[in-house]
Amino acid sequence: MSPRRSVADTLETRQRILDRSLAIASAEGLEGLTIGRLAGELGMSKAGLLGHFGTKEALQLAVVDQAAEVFQREVPGRVKQAPSGLPRLKAVCEAWVSYLEREVLPGGCFFTAATTEFDGRSGRVRDALAGMNALWRRDLRIHIRRAVSFGELPEDTDVDQLIYEVVGIMLALNHFLQLEHDSAAPARARRALDRLFTAR
């Protein structure tokens, strides 16, 4: 086997591990990832699976990165053509609703599940999750401030409050979809967002 093929096979195997790990973690949490379970489901040895990551924590961190890539592709990545300001903010929120509505991940929002699991802990996984959430809030803040600067939202808009309310709507949407299996939840979220942006 050529070195190039060997590298490609290694990367393909690593991606298979991450894809399966993310699916499990979205539904059962990062602690639901056990080396034995993954090895069995993927037809690998434990040693072979660990060889790709080294430790369970390293695997968890890689899954956080993978989840961020999926979210980036499915939410901000889908609205790059939307005009800056309020149109982009609304498009991002619609893509976020759609991401949850389409059940891109079997357990709903990975970051909601993982943050709840790790918010009371310390360590690298908790810090990685906090960092990803901070980056997303930063992006929302940019969209809101541009909307204010363009005159699309009032000058006295409380940016942090608006972010809090948008995130709250999305957390509620994830809850009603996952726990209640409420098919009306996406429509309710859209109405709540519409009121949020038009009431200002």
Automatic annotation (TrEMBL):
The lineage of its organism: Bacteria, Bacillati, Actinomycetota, Actinomycetes, Pseudonocardiales. Keywords: DNA-binding, Transcription, Transcription regulation. SUPFAM superfamilies: Homeodomain-like, Tetracyclin repressor-like, C-terminal domain. PROSITE patterns: HTH_TETR_2. Residues 11-71 form the HTH tetR-type domain. PANTHER family: HTH-TYPE TRANSCRIPTIONAL REPRESSOR NEMR, TRANSCRIPTIONAL REGULATORY PROTEIN. The keyword DNA-binding applies. This is TetR/AcrR family transcriptional regulator. Residues 34-53 bind DNA. Gene3D superfamilies: Homeodomain-like, Tetracycline Repressor, domain 2.
